[in-house]
């Protein structure tokens, strides 16, 4: 079976074989419901407790602060909607580059009398200081700024931003889905700065789809999205996905170990990739900002991004046109538009997100395939003009 080289790790990652091995017993042998009182149930509960400790340790949190969910989208919704339910309608402030699973629930709050305020970013995808201060003057009740952007990879100084919010007494949340597993993450340090909650997801770091977490300061009151049997301290009812939660714990532990060794291999690969992209006339977005080491977002003037992604797929390389969760949307990336990128160039955006298994040979082969594809597309454009 033909398998393209996988350059789309920000969308999802391959399941680590060690994680799969750890999950299998909870799919076949230890199949008990974690709420049952017999040994089958107790075995499932022990596995969840151990996974919670592993996730908490990797995120620099206490296990009692970890609420398991079905993924990052649910965790973001749990915070935005859950916190709003205990507050009088006010201002919910989010950065203009947030993932749709923060943007959409924030928009939904408008039906309950809330006002949405988007915080501007600069040309390098960083929160604009002047507009952030202006937002704080408006006294928001909820603030959410993602730790690292899923498209550009740009990292926000969330600790400093949260410290500025702290005097306003607003609840501050950060979507850390793309950061977790790629850079050190410490909720305790962020919490002391003023971050009250952060979101994690298993499938971005070698774990299974269907498991995520909201790490939340226990002083924050949240209304559950899913009511029922009172699982997860009453914040997320429903029979736990034990195998996926076990996999999440193992993946988090393995990711923390990888970060500790810090090889720098992926950053070196990206540097070679981007040198080759620039040589071919590409614009690399947010190249002056601090970014996740694996992420490169670029465009070639006059080349449609969706078309280029399709051609590269047929050439043997799996890349993305923007964010995977928005791939069905033909509109230009809202992230790039917020950065002031022209709509015509934004339509050409392609994201390469590398993983630990990618190689220098793959990057060089990709650059060769890209060059040939661009020549082909420009030739077709010339013929039809």
Structure, explained:
The longest helix has 25 residues, at 360-384. α11 crosses α14. The protein starts with a strand and ends with a helix. The strands form three sheets. A seven-stranded mixed beta sheet has the order 2-8-7-6-5-3-4, with helices on both faces. Strands 9-10-12 form a three-stranded antiparallel beta sheet. A two-stranded parallel sheet has the order 1-11. The protein has helices at 17-23, 25-28, 39-59, 72-84, 100-108, 129-137, 158-165, 187-193, 242-261, 265-279, 305-315, 334-338, 343-346, 360-384; strands spanning 5-6, 66-69, 91-95, 115-119, 142-144, 171-175, 197-201, 212-216, 283-284, 295-299, 317-318, 350-353. It contains 14 helices and twelve strands. By secondary structure, the protein is α/β, with parallel strands linked by helices. The chain is 41% helix and 12% strand. It folds into two domains: 5-13 and 263-384, Alpha-Beta Complex (Aspartate Aminotransferase, domain 1); 17-258, Aspartate Aminotransferase, domain 2. The model has no long low-confidence stretch (mean pLDDT 95).
